[in-house]
Design a protein that fits this description.
By secondary structure, the protein is an alpha/beta fold. 28% of the residues lie in helices and 14% in strands. The strands form 2 sheets. The chain has a 5-stranded parallel β-sheet, with helices on both faces. Helix 2 links the parallel strand 1 and strand 2 (53-57).
Length: 222
């Protein structure tokens, strides 16, 4: 939190000014890969479920400082798994982080943002949703290898990856099966998404009742 404040100060970003009853949800929109194919439906369902307005931000279309400003006042941040979720460190206390995972990608194996949200002093709620319906995913086997393509692999290996239901544990970050799956586009199943949120959010994201900061002294890094 000290680092986030320092960064906002250096980038001359003022915190988003908000009225008492202006709670809103931010959805990260992507332009070229890992798309949420029913993004409009997702935005509508979030607005109806939480009685908050929804806004989208995009690293492809907006400067970083404006995205940080918007996130710094949000009650909830929703995004596909990806580096853009590091911006969750700018969320106010009491907010929620909702991380979406494509088909065959197990949230238990990719937890940097879950860890960030749960650090003492962050006071963020975290929920992971995973697509378990294969028909709701679109993969791109013919793309370049670093965007999830697998056409360069042996035929048997391609078939094994395509029929696999779960990416096995692997080293970061060039594993072709991991890249194939993480670069899928996803149709978010709205009923299962809302069910996961209802179960996972202990309280409705509320910035006005957020707890004061606690002090954390990091352990030695091995």
């Amino acid at each position: 939190r000290q680092f986030a404040s320092f960064l906002m100060e250096r980038l001359n970003i003022s915190k988003e000014q908000r009225s008492e009853d202006d709670d809103y949800i931010v959805v990260f929109s992507r332009a070229s890969n890992r798309l949420i194919l029913n993004e409009a439906e997702l935005l509508l369902s979030l607005a109806q479920e939480f009685k908050m307005r929804t806004v989208t931000v995009s690293l492809d279309e907006q400067p970083f400082d404006s995205i940080v400003r918007v996130i710094s006042g949000a009650s909830m941040l929703v995004s596909m798994h990806g580096a853009q979720l590091i911006t969750s460190l700018f969320l106010p206390r009491g907010a929620a982080v909702i991380e979406l995972f494509p088909y065959a990608v197990n949230p238990e194996q990719y937890t940097p943002y879950k860890t960030l949200a749960s650090l003492p002093g962050m006071d963020l709620q975290y929920v992971a949703w995973r697509n378990i319906i294969e028909e709701n995913s679109v993969a791109y086997p013919d793309r370049p290898w670093d965007q999830g393509g697998i056409a360069h692999l042996e035929k048997e290996e391609q078939e094994r990856i395509i029929t696999s239901k779960d990416v096995p544990r692997h080293l970061c970050c060039r594993n072709p099966e991991w890249l194939y799956r993480i670069y899928q586009d996803t149709i978010v199943n709205i009923p299962s998404f809302l069910e996961v949120l209802r179960e996972g959010l202990k309280v409705k994201p509320n910035l006005k009742k957020s707890k004061p900061a606690s002090t954390v002294h990091p352990g030695r890094v091995r």
